Amino acid sequence: MPLSGIQVRNLKPREKAFKVSDFEGLFVLVKPNGSKLWQMKYRLYGKERLLSIGVYPDVSLAQARKAKDETRAKVAAKIDPSEAKQTEKRVKREEAGQTFEKIGAQFLEKQRKEGKTKATLDKTAYHLKLANSDFGRRPITEITAPMIS
Question: For residue 127, which phi and psi values (nearest 5 degrees)?
Fold first, then answer.
């Protein structure tokens, strides 16, 4: 039976986190500290995935259901909603200027201002060029050690 707004509002925390289902994979996770999180389970290519929608009351029941419908539409089109959400965040970070390429250019400029030798500047520029071809457009926070080696 689908949840109502009053039921969600009246959910009380317990000693352990628990889930209360709405329908079609949507549920609210109630944590021991009292926070309520909207999440949705879905299956794509035989694997179960979990998508976090938002925190209640910032995201209302109606908004959570709308997000659930959008998620189901993406799954039907064979698009992973979780990856789509991460890609959207990555694009926003790129627009904010936190990419490896931009930070590398700033570093090179800093070295120029510090008066480094031409050989040092050339070597740094060469290494940045190589690195930019692999992950220059990636947000700096997403670059991990295994990607570099």
Answer: -65, -40
Place of tokens 């627009």: 95
Both tokens assigned to 78? 């064979």
Answer for the pair 147, 135: CB distance below 8 angstroms, yes or no. yes
Q: Distance (Å, rounded) from C-alpha 64 to C-alpha 106?
A: 41
Partners of 42 in beta bridges: 49
Q: Which helix (H) or strand (E) holds 52?
A: strand 47-56
Q: In what order do the strands lie in the sheet with 26-30?
A: 18-21, 26-30, 36-44, 47-56
Q: Is cis: bond before 32, omega within 30 of 0?
A: no
User: Tens digit of pLDDT per residue, the chain (149 long)?
Assistant: 688 889 988 999 999 999 999 888 899 999 999 999 999 999 988 899 999 999 998 999 999 999 999 999 999 999 999 888 888 888 887 777 788 898 899 999 999 999 999 999 999 999 999 988 888 888 787 788 887 77
Q: Are 26 and 20 in contact (CB under 8 A)?
A: no
DSSP state of 46: T
